[in-house]
Design a protein that fits this description.
Elements (H helix, E strand, L loop, with lengths): L2 E6 L47 E21 L6 E6 L4 E4 L1 E2 L5 H11 L6 E4 L4 E7 L4 E21 L2 E4 L4 E15 L1
Antiparallel strand pairs: 1-10, 2-8, 3-7, 4-6, 5-10, 8-9, 8-10
Length: about 190
């Protein structure tokens, strides 16, 4: 039997000890461990109606989310009791906004307006923080992975012209760090 447990971490430090690392999760895994943000409004989509002639905005679209893995450890429980799996972070890691253009206040406002989500420009895992512990029952093998949930976006500059939003300029791409994330797979 295989089970996955996902946990969103608040920015607090815990105490524990380290384990040896082994590969089990890849940054390319397509499983999204947390729900994607849902739009609460459509935004200024090209071709839709607008009222303020010459108004300029950005039409943003969340295209996906992924778990950007920073580290992982594996261990097996070959005892008769419960064994914890945990890891002390040995190196600080962070994720920042990445964009094919400048991240500016207008873009941040458009994302907030459409998705009601406020991103930090940078999220950290700090050296010395502990991930876990999670319990492994007798006979189980567990792999613990930690990293960041990243949301991927496109952005299209638009202008209100004769009552309709019209695309103006290049389509841009980017990623924003939503949260720190932990996932454990137990077999």
């Amino acid at each position: 039997m295989h089970k996955k447990i996902a946990a969103i971490l608040a920015p607090i430090a815990l105490a524990a000890s380290g384990l040896a690392s082994a590969p089990a999760f890849a940054a390319s895994d397509t499983w999204t461990p947390v729900p994607m943000l849902q739009a609460v409004e459509t935004g200024p989509q090209p071709g839709t109606a607008c009222t303020r002639n010459r108004e300029r905005r950005q039409f943003v679209t969340l295209t996906g989310s992924h778990f950007d893995v920073e580290g992982q450890v594996s261990t097996s429980n070959d005892t008769d009791g419960v064994v914890p799996i945990q890891q002390i972070i040995k190196e600080s890691k962070s994720r920042k906004w990445t964009w094919s253009a400048t991240v500016n206040a207008k873009l941040i406002d458009e994302i907030y307006r459409k998705y009601h989500w406020e991103y930090n420009r940078e999220i950290f895992w700090s050296m010395g923080q502990t991930v876990g512990p999670y319990d492994l029952n007798p006979g189980e093998t567990g792999t613990l992975a930690w990293g960041f949930i990243m949301d991927d976006y496109t952005s299209q500059p638009v202008i209100c012209s004769t009552g309709t939003w019209k695309a103006r300029g290049a389509l841009r791409f980017g990623s924003a760090p939503r949260e720190r994330h932990v996932e454990i797979a137990i077999n």
